[in-house]
Write a structure and sequence with these properties.
α2 (about 15-30) runs antiparallel to α6 (about 105-135), α4 packs antiparallel against α16 and α11 (about 225-255) packs parallel to α13. With about 400 residues, the chain is an all-alpha fold. β1 (about 5) and β2 (about 10) form a beta hairpin. The protein folds into two domains: about 5-190, MFS general substrate transporter like domains (Growth Hormone, Chain: A, Up-down Bundle), CATH 1.20.1250.20; about 220-405, Growth Hormone, Chain: A (Up-down Bundle). Helix content is about 75%, strand content about 0%. It is built from 17 helices and two strands. The protein is globular, with a radius of gyration of 21 Å. A two-stranded antiparallel ribbon has the order 1-2.
């Protein structure tokens, strides 16, 4: 296959379309971050408790994290195009099947297990393809591609809110799932890897030494204090961020007393900061260290948790500032963790090592959902959920200082 030209133009120009297509695909995949718009309508329609209403979101993120690990293992066999189309089809099917759910358990299986599993399979495809076509601008290219995932709710939350208001939550699942199915199947059609050793014309790669002081295999990594510290801190960072994402709209409506449309708009605004968190904390991790970036994130989470414990009706600005902080730090941890994995354990086994580290994301999603749901069910208010996040932020600061240190030979 000719790698000199892509999409009818020189490959150095045509490869940028993979970023555009990957950005669009990630908008579809990242629509899970708009679930808080569905949460209250689904809870009322299916007569569910707050904990039960969060179960589809928890399972979606858990299966996303799990299947992402396995998707990376089979991409070499299936190829990016086929794996991406399979994942995209499963995502669309999960959302459309969710429209037929008559109970929260069925919604958890369709939206959570099926939809989340599909995202896990498809998620790594744009990153793998873009990364190989941009050996000279890998950081920029991957950052632009991933911005679609973090910023997705800016579009999907507002679309979902408008549809829910017009047709209800269940038809909204169907319409959005059908759109995702068509969009992703079309976008994945041209996806392919370049030939081994391809590089842009005129670019000469710089021989780079390993970033870390050692190169550890998976079995070696898990025995280090650095892995324990990173894994626990990643859980705490994701727990606070994903919990906030899952209840952003309900908290705005029930505690601050804003309208549902305003809450949906603010979810879109928060999503922008989720996207910004990646480059901001990426720079902090590079310039300072993974440990200091982690400590900064936990200080922000602590301050935002304390802020929400004082919030009440009309505290709109406080609510916005605190949830901007939560969303920002979640995006931040999606930069801190992969960078720390490279710095602590080396580059040679990065893909497998980070695949295991990423399970912390799924654990954080489950624990965050349980904390939020139990706070609402047991105490009648989501506000109580910010006590655990405050305590865990303090624990995270201690763990990061003690354990998040590079492994030495």
């Amino acid at each position: 296959m000719n790698d000199d030209r892509l999409f009818g133009m020189p490959a150095e120009q045509g490869r940028w379309l993979f970023i555009v297509l990957g950005f669009i695909i990630n908008i579809c995949l990242g629509s899970v971050y708009a679930y808080s718009v569905f949460r209250t309508p689904v809870q009322k329609l299916l007569n569910a408790t707050a904990t039960e209403a969060g179960l589809p979101f928890m399972l979606f993120l858990a299966f996303f994290a799990t299947l992402m690990f396995f998707g990376g293992q089979v991409m070499a066999k299936l190829g990016p195009k086929l794996l991406g189309m399979i994942g995209g089809a499963i995502v669309g099917a999960g959302w459309m099947l969710a429209s037929q759910a008559g109970s929260i358990n069925m919604l958890s299986v369709t939206y959570g297990v099926i939809g989340g599993g599909g995202v896990g399979l498809a998620y790594g495809v744009p990153l793998a393809v873009v990364g190989r076509w941009f050996p000279d601008k890998r950081g920029l290219a991957l950052g632009l591609t991933l911005a679609g995932f973090g910023g997705s709710p800016f579009i999907s939350a507002n679309v979902a809110s408008a549809l829910i208001k017009t047709v209800g939550p269940m038809p909204t699942f169907f319409y959005m799932g059908a759109a995702f199915l068509v969009i992703m199947l079309l976008c994945f059609i041209p996806f392919r890897f370049p030939q081994e050793g391809w590089k842009p014309a005129g670019w000469t790669p710089v021989a780079a030494a390993g970033t870390g002081s050692v190169d550890l295999a998976l079995g070696q990594m898990v025995k280090t204090p650095a892995f324990v510290g990173l894994f626990l801190c990643y859980i705490i960072g994701c727990l606070a961020g994903l919990m906030a994402i899952g209840i952003s709209a309900p908290v705005g409506q029930e505690i601050i007393r804003i309208e549902s449309a305003t809450a949906a708009t603010l979810v879109g605004v928060f999503a922008i900061f989720n996207g910004l968190g990646r480059p901001i904390f990426g720079v902090l991790t590079d310039k300072l260290s993974p440990k200091m970036a982690a400590v900064i994130s936990f200080v922000i989470i602590l301050l935002c948790s304390l802020g929400m414990l004082t919030a009440g009706e009309g505290s709109l600005m406080l609510y916005v500032i605190c949830f901007v902080g939560f969303w920002l730090c979640l995006g931040g941890w999606l930069a801190i963790a992969p960078t720390a994995t490279t710095i602590f354990f080396g580059v040679r086994n990065y893909a497998k090592n980070y695949g295991l580290v990423y399970f912390a994301y799924g654990i954080g999603a489950i624990l965050g959902g349980i904390i939020a749901g139990q706070a609402k069910d047991a105490f009648g208010s989501y506000k109580v959920a910010f006590y655990p996040t405050a305590g865990l932020a303090i624990a995270g600061i201690i763990i990061a200082i003690m354990l998040m240190k590079p492994v030495r030979k």
